[in-house]
Backbone:
C-alpha cells in the first residue's frame, strides 16, 4: 500500500528565510581534532552554479547538517568522518553520508551519497557503489583537495551525479 | 513513481529544464533506505509557531490559523515531529534579497516559523495569509498564495518539502508548479480547507491541512503498475 501521501513541491528560491540556521553546516566544530571540511558546488545541466540549492547531510551516529549554496553555487560542511555502516543484508557499507538536495527547479528532492577517497578497499566492496556502473561511481566519491574534501553535485548532463530512488 | 508525485522534468516550469536529472535514479535493494530520520538539532521555542508575534508590532494582513495533523501512510500520527514553514507577506513579498518585485516588505513580518506536533500529530501556526506574487516563469506568471512546509517524519524516506495552497484560488489552474502533479487527486491534497470550527470569532479565520508522510512499510513501487 502507499496511502494518500502528500505530494512534494519545490523548495523554491526563497527558502533562505525559513530553512538555513546558524551553524547548520557544522556537524562538528571547525578546528577541533579529527574534524574535516567538505566543500563543493551544485551545478546545473550547463555547468552553471545553482545559487538557490539547500543540502542536508545525515548519517545516524555522526549527525545532521544543513547548508545552502551561495551565489557561486558553493556549500560547505564541517564534520567528523562517519564509520562503516551495516547493510540490511548483513554486508558492510563503506563510510558515507546520505546527501539530500533541494533547489528551485527540483519539484522533488534528490538523494545521493558522498563516499570518502581514502577508503579504496571499503568502497570497492560497497554494495551500493557496486550497483552503479563503474564510470559513474566517481561522482559519489569526494576528492582530496588542499586539505579539504571536495564533492560537487551535478544535477544534469555530463558527469551527472548518481541519484537514488527513495 | 505514482502519478500523485510531480516528475523531475516538467518543461512548463522552466526551472526544471536544466536541473532535472537526465539519467534514471538508481533503485536501492530493499531495506537500504530504511533508517531513521535526521535528529534535527534546532530547538523550538514557545512562540516559534506564531509568525504574528516576532516583532514589536503586528504584521499587516488577514490573520489566520493554519492547523492539521501529520500522519504516516498507515494512518499513525507522527508525534513530536518538527514542522518548518516559510512564506511571503500579505503583499506577496518574501524577506529575501533575491525577491525584488515591487511590493512592500513588512517590518513586522519575517515569514518563518516552526513547531513540534503534539501527541495526536497536530500542528498549529498563527500567521497572516500570504499574497500572490509574480515570478517570470512565463508572461504574466503569478504564484497562487501558498505556505511552504518542511517535515522530517520518523524515517529517512519520510522527508517532505511541499507547499500548502488555499481553497478557491483562481491562480491554481494556471500554476505550473502545482500543475506538475499529474493527478487532480494529488493536487487536491495540497489544498487546505476553510475550517470554521477552528476559526476564532472577532480574531482569525482558520484553514485545515493534513499531511501524510511515507512510513516505514510503504514502498513507492508497489502501486506503479
Residues:
Amino acid at each position: 500500500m502507499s496511502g494518500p501521501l502528500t505530494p512534494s513541491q519545490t523548495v523554491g528560491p526563497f527558502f533562505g528565510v525559513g530553512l538555513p540556521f546558524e551553524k547548520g553546516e557544522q556537524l562538528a566544530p571547525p578546528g577541533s581534532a579529527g574534524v574535516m571540511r567538505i566543500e563543493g558546488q551544485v551545478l546545473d545541466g550547463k555547468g552553471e552554479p545553482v545559487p538557490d540549492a539547500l543540502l542536508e547531510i545525515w548519517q545516524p551516529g555522526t549527525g545532521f547538517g544543513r547548508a545552502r549554496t551561495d551565489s557561486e553555487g558553493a556549500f560547505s560542511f564541517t564534520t567528523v568522518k562517519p564509520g562503516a555502516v551495516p547493510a540490511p543484508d548483513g554486508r558492510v557499507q563503506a563510510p558515507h553520508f546520505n546527501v539530500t538536495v533541494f533547489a528551485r527547479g527540483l519539484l522533488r528532492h534528490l538523494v545521493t551519497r558522498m563516499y570518502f577517497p581514502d577508503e579504496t578497499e571499503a568502497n570497492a566492496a560497497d554494495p551500493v557503489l557496486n550497483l552503479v556502473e563503474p564510470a559513474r561511481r566517481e561522482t559519489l566519491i569526494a576528492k582530496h583537495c588542499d586539505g579539504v574534501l571536495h564533492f560537487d553535485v551535478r544535477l544534469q548532463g555530463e558527469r551527472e551525479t548518481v541519484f537514488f530512488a527513495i | 513513481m505514482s502519478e500523485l508525485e510531480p516528475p523531475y522534468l516538467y518543461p512548463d516550469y522552466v526551472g526544471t529544464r536544466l536541473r532535472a536529472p537526465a539519467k534514471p535514479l538508481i533503485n536501492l535493494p530493499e531495506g537500504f533506505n530504511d533508517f531513521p530520520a535526521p535528529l534535527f538539532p534546532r530547538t523550538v521555542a514557545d512562540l516559534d509557531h506564531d509568525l504574528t508575534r516576532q516583532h514589536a508590532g503586528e504584521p499587516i494582513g488577514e490573520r489566520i490559523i493554519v492547523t492539521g495533523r501529520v500522519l504516516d501512510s498507515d494512518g499513525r500520527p507522527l508525534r513530536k515531529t518538527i514542522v518548518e514553514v516559510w512564506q511571503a507577506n500579505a503583499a506577496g513579498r518574501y524577506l529575501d534579497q533575491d525577491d525584488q518585485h515591487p511590493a512592500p516588505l513588512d517590518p513586522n513580518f519575517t515569514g518563518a516559523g516552526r513547531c513540534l506536533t503534539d501527541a495526536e500529530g497536530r500542528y498549529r501556526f498563527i500567521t497572516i495569509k500570504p499574497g500572490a506574487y509574480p515570478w517570470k516563469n512565463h508572461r504574466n506568471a503569478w504564484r497562487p498564495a501558498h505556505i511552504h512546509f518542511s517535515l522530517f517524519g520518523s524515517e529517512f524516506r519520510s522527508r517532505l518539502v511541499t507547499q500548502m495552497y488555499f481553497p478557491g484560488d483562481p491562480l491554481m489552474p494556471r500554476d505550473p508548479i502545482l500543475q506538475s502533479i499529474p493527478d487532480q487527486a494529488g493536487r487536491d491534497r495540497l489544498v487546505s480547507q476553510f475550517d470554521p470550527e477552528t476559526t476564532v470569532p472577532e480574531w482569525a479565520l482558520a484553514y485545515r491541512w493534513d499531511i501524510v508522510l511515507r512510513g516505514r512499510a510503504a514502498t513507492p513501487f508497489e502501486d506503479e503498475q
About this structure: Residues 184-188 of chain B form the longest helix (5 residues). The two ends of chain B are 10 Å apart (CA to CA). Residues 120 and 204 of chain B are 23 Å apart (CA to CA).
